[in-house]
UniProtKB/TrEMBL annotation:
Protein name (database record): O-antigen ligase-related domain-containing protein
Organism: Pacificimonas flava
Domain of life where this protein originates: Bacteria
Keywords, ordered alphabetically: Membrane, Transmembrane, Transmembrane helix
Keyword Nucleotide-binding listed: no
Amino acid sequence: MTSSSRPAFSAAPVRSGARLHAPSPLALLLVLLAALPALAALMFPVPWNQMGGGLATFAYINDFLFAAAEVAFIVYMRRRGRSVLRPLWDLGRADGIALGVFLALFWVSSVFVSQQPAFSLVRVLLWVVHGLFGLAVFEAAKAMTRHSMSRAAAGVACGVLLLAALTAVHIAALPASVLRGSDLPWDTMLPGFMSARQLGFTAAAAMGLLAGYLSLGAERRPEAAIAFAGLLVASALLCFSGTRSGVLAFVAGAVPTVFLCRTNLKARGVLAACGAILLGALASTLWVPEHPAFGIERILGIAAASPEGEISAGRTQLWMLTAGLIGDAPLLGHGENAALWLLKPFGYHHFQPHNIVLQAALSWGLPAALAAGYLAVRMWSGAAMAVRRDNWAMPLFLALNTLLIMAMLDGVLHAGRTVQLAAALAAMLLAIGRRHTDAE
């Protein structure tokens, strides 16, 4: 048979120069970040506390799906010939010392002090994965441009719309008797999320990115329309989830962001963003579970805030108890995720103390927590400098600020999915800023 008569299904030889092109690292990264929440909703439709325990429950609780995606991206970057650790060689002396102190200490109590060392070490390894993922994102994001920002906004909007559709289908498929139940644990019944708060974390970060994108005045009409729809739905999901810290963090995070980018904001874009947020808040009232953890009424303080009946939802007691525990082991801490077995102020266990500073000090000890805090401040400063020079990166900065402020009030930097998101946002901003440093 001659080559001209080869059947269509036969394998043709690969010609030089006719290679299949793998997706760019940046494109793959944006797809992963946008699609993972919806993928989690498909994979975990059953509440975590009804999964019967075992490895599947453990994987769900610790966001192994997101960690697996991070590992896959790191491996992809290595196969593309990119050095994940290369950014570390460019650290300044003070930054290098702080990183060395952190790496030398943050795992010690998990091995020698923790009441559950195996569990603590798993959580320690997850932090290592998050860190390596951030370094990989830094390398990939060096190719990020204004056009990439438009694609990122469109991708996030599509991810939010898909997540909302899956959530709506999941709820609509429940029996009518269940939908009318007022004594159901609705806060753990959303597909893909351990709690309604985690949905709020994701929605608030998406709001930050999409509101920032619209406020700069989207240059292309299709992306602007998709971003508007995504922002409306993200606002609806945030208000539906009753996550007050998300609303507070979005508003507070906008202050430094607007200050840095005030000359580049477009009045029409700001009005469009505000309109989408308000419409989303109204849409969130169409259906709300009969549960005190949900709804805009909880955010506005109309409904009871918590079983403890306080606007702080018991956080002040939790923080004081955590501070006392830190005093018991100030140098090395009690082990990663020690809050799970040490914090039980209201008759039930807490995964974390609803404050990243206390969470770090409790788990790692004060020296490691201070070193991590110093590095976090340095990263935020570098991100702010990047936005000052390239205002088109403002959506990333607003999303990052929203997450960081929420982390002072909730477990944003305890959940692997939002640690991943914060690491990616910070790394992208630092990579954008690094281009100017290299040029100088």
